Amino acid sequence: MNVLTSDDTISAIATAIGEGGIGIVRVSGSKAVAIADKLFIGKTGKRAADILSHQVVYGDIVDPGSGETIDEAILIIMRGPRSYTREDIVEIHCHGGPVPLRRILDLTLTLGARLAEPGEFTKRAFLSGRLDLAQAEAVIDIIRSKTDASLRVAVGNLSGTLSGEIKHLRHDILKMIAQLEAAIDFPEEDIEEAAAADVAELIVKANAEIGKLLSTAQTGRILREGLATVIVGKPNVGKSSLLNALLREKRAIVTDIPGTTRDIIEEYVNIRGIPLKIIDTAGIRETTDVVEKIGVERAKELVNQADLILLLLDASMPLSAEDRAVLELLAGRQAIILVNKSDLPSLLEFEELKKAAGNRLVLKISVTQGDGLAELEQAIADLVYSGHVSQGEAAFVNNVRHADALRHTSQRLEEALATIEAGMPPDCIVVDLRAAWEKLGEITGDTVGEDIIDQIFTQFCIGK
C-alpha cells in the first residue's frame, strides 16, 4: 500500500481559467478546516469548524486581516477519510471570475496552505490508496475526452475495469510462483515436473488474456489521443472542402485558385465516437512560391507521421503525374483514396487507379453534394475498431505506458515457458514469473518507481 508522507496542506483553483458562473478553490490537508474557519462566516454566523462533513453552507469569505468581504460563497467540507484525497478537503464555491478566485486562493496561502503542484490532489488520492495508478491516469483521460466513446473508456478505467483485470492476472502469476516454490521447498515429494507442467498451462492461459488486452491498445490509444489523419492531394481537389464538410463548419478557405492552403490546418472532429485529429495540408505540387513550398514539405512530413491518410483525387481529371507522385508517398501507410467531384463527368480511369492503389479502399465522393461522406465515416470506424474491438464494458488499454508494460509482461511469460520447455529447475522459472508479476504492478502502481509517478502527475492541471 502506498503511504502519504507529506503533512502539507495544499490549495489551488480547481476550475478553468477565465470567467464563469462558479469558480472553486480546493484545499486539502490537516489544516484545511482551520484555514476555512478563519476566512468563512456563514450567513447564520456558523463557523467552518462547526460544519458537518459533506454539508453545504452559504456565507461570506472575509479577509481576517482587514475584515473585508471578498465574495459570497458556498462552503463544502469533506472530512477524511471520506474524501477524494482521504484527507480533510474544503471546497469554496464562489463567483467564477479570476479576481475573487485569486483573492481567495491568496488568503488560503497566507493562512498556512501552499500552492498545489500539478495533479497533487489526485497524487494524494493515489498515495493514500484511494485510487491505483491506472485509475489516477483515467482522471486526466476523462478531463481530456473528446468524444462519448473516449469518455466511456476513461470512465471504465476510473471505475477499475482495467485495474481489476491486471490484479486478477497478478494473482494468477503469484499462484504459479507459490506452486513452484512449494516444489522447491519439498524436493523429496518429487513434484517439480508436475508443478512445471501445471504452470506451463497457466502461463499459456495468462498470456492469452494479455493478448486480448493488447488487442484493444491501438483502438484505445486512438480514442484517448485521436486518430492523426492527414488530408493530402494535389491543389484544388477539394481538401479544404472535405475538412469543412467533416467539421460541419467553414474552417478552411475554399476557392477555385490552386494553392490557397499554404499552411497546416489542424482540428478535432468526432467521427462516430472516434476523435479524428484531422490535418488539412497544402496541395502537393512543384512550386516556386516560397511559402507554398514550405507548406508542401510540411505536408510530406506529416504523411510519415499520420495514423491515416485521406488522399483526394479529382474524378473530372485524368490521373496526373502529380497524383502518381502523391500515391507514391503512401507506400507502407494506412490510407483511403477518395475520388472527389464524382458528380461531374468522369475522366479518371478507375481501372488504372485501382492498379496504382493496390489493395487500398477507393471511395467515390462529392464533397459539394455530400455524397459518399457517410461511407467514408463508416470506413474510418471499421479501420479503428478492426471489426472485432467494441465499445462495450470490457477493459480497454488506452495508454502507451500500460501497453508497453503488458508487452514486457508477455515477453517474460514466454521466457518462463521456454525455461520450462528447456527442463530448467523451478527457481529459474520463478525468476521470469516474478519479473512478469512486477511489470504488471507498474500499471496499477504497486511496483512502480517514484520517478515514473512524478512524471505521470506532472501531466495534470493544477487543482486536479
UniProtKB/TrEMBL annotation:
Annotated residues for binding of (6S)-5-formyl-5,6,7,8-tetrahydrofolate: 26, 91, 130, 464
Chain positions recorded as K(+) binding sites: 236, 255, 257, 260
KW Endoplasmic reticulum (keyword) present: no
GO BP terms in the entry: tRNA methylation; tRNA wobble uridine modification
InterPro entries per UniProt: G_TrmE (IPR031168), GTP-bd (IPR006073), GTP-bd_TrmE_N (IPR018948), GTPase_MnmE (IPR004520), MnmE_dom2 (IPR027368), MnmE_helical (IPR025867), P-loop_NTPase (IPR027417), Small_GTP-bd (IPR005225)
UniProt keyword annotation of Thylakoid present: no
Keyword terms of this UniProt record: Cytoplasm, GTP-binding, Hydrolase, Magnesium, Metal-binding, Nucleotide-binding, Potassium, tRNA processing
Primary location class: cytoplasm
Positions of Mg(2+) binding: 240, 261
UniProt subcellular location: Cytoplasm
Binding site for GTP: 236-241, 255-261, 280-283
Cofactor note text: Binds 1 potassium ion per subunit.
Enzyme Commission number: 3.6.-.-
Family: Belongs to the TRAFAC class TrmE-Era-EngA-EngB-Septin-like GTPase superfamily. TrmE GTPase family.
Protein name: tRNA modification GTPase MnmE
Higher taxonomy: Bacteria, Bacillati, Bacillota, Negativicutes, Selenomonadales
Gene name, Swiss-Prot/TrEMBL: mnmE
